[in-house]
Amino acid sequence: MMHIVTNTHISSRSWAVIVWVLTRTAFLLFVFEVVRFPGQYIANDVSSIYHGWYGVLRGGTFPLHDVTWQYPPGAALVVLSPGLLPFLGYSAAFFWLAFLADAVVLGVLLRDSAVRRSGRLAAVWVWVGGVTLLGPIVYARYDVMVTAVGVLALLRFPRRPRAAGLLAGFGAMLKVWPLLLLIGAPRGRSTRRSWLTAAATMAVLALAFHLAMPGSMSFLTFQRERGTEVESLGAMVFHLGRHLGWHGTVRMNYGSMEFLGPHVHLVSTAAMALSVLAFGWLLLWRLRARTFTVATPYDAAFAALLVFTTTSRVISPQYMVWLIGIGAVCVTLRESVMRRPVALVLAATLFTTLEFPVFFSDVVASDKLGVALLLVRNGLLVLASLSACRRLWAATVPRRAARGLPERGMPAARDDRTSVLTSTSR
């Protein structure tokens, strides 16, 4: 009987790898333009924008006057990384490095102790299937590389909080969001170790870039001045408004297609206020949470990333790979309460690919098809965010603490794995 189970387990792993190889081969065919993916051209960012930055960065300075440079200084390492493969052209080298980052995530999920112990490959299939739904844009942006760092950080957290903090801090210098991965650190030594290590890593890298290359913090100005991008939640106001007499335009602005016209600044401000409220909720949750299970660091990271993505002024399609990667980490554990939000994110990923690149011209024109696709995609993200926050709160905040009453006794009994996590984090 054990022999049969083992063979089935190996067969499941093999199927996951086979599907990954087939779908990623298709991705490479698309980005190398052997086969054309339907809709908007997806590789321009690499061949034009990233390649242009590459030339500037190699000269020893950041793109000081390029408003499309809106990334922390560590992003320069990613933009320069194709130089490690000098025998390839810039775009080709970038695509292969993105492929490698994808393979790294697959590998660490397959080798994760929880996955190997249980024999459950749900996490692997979330990654394989979710990225497949998102399509070849995954290889045409650098977000998959940041996601690989984020996944490694989160999986290191239970036993090596300093390593997790170092990776999260490094990831934050690539694209900020990996810093959210530490929000669910259990109280005590784990929190101190991971947060202090992350802060130190960011400080050292920021200082190094400041001393080595001028303009390392210019991205802050360009990021602050961004408006409402056409795929964001706030953009729905103007998509619908165009059918009701709102007179505005859609133009390339600060690196993306944004709405320009009356009341856009107000909606952009409202989106930032919503993000601040989301941060306030996370802070409240952190103060009230008492029951930290082995899955809480994963679940909290996913919920935090999800709400900040949903409330952002910009929801570029490649952002979904962040959620797919961290959602896959959640599913490695049976104790996770994020299965339904992860499933909603996967559904939203399909509609993301439909709205960009397939029917992006309809989105820009606010045609009925484009608006419908955005309504469904953004609606799924809102539902996922609300579900994730509700489930995280219910799983970690005792009822008396939620009501602001003093607690009596200890929280509900934890299983053995939770006790181990709690004891090692003090």
From TrEMBL:
Its main location: membrane. It is found in: Cell membrane. Keywords: Cell membrane, Membrane, Transferase, Transmembrane, Transmembrane helix. The chain crosses the membrane at residues 12-32, 87-110, 122-142, 162-183, 195-213, 264-284, 291-309, 315-333, 342-360, 372-393. The keyword Acetylation does not apply. GO terms for cellular component: plasma membrane. Pfam families: GT87. Residues 406-426 are annotated as: Disordered. GO terms for molecular function: hexosyltransferase activity. InterPro entries: GT87, UCP010361. It is a multi-pass membrane protein. Belongs to the glycosyltransferase 87 family. This is DUF2029 domain-containing protein.
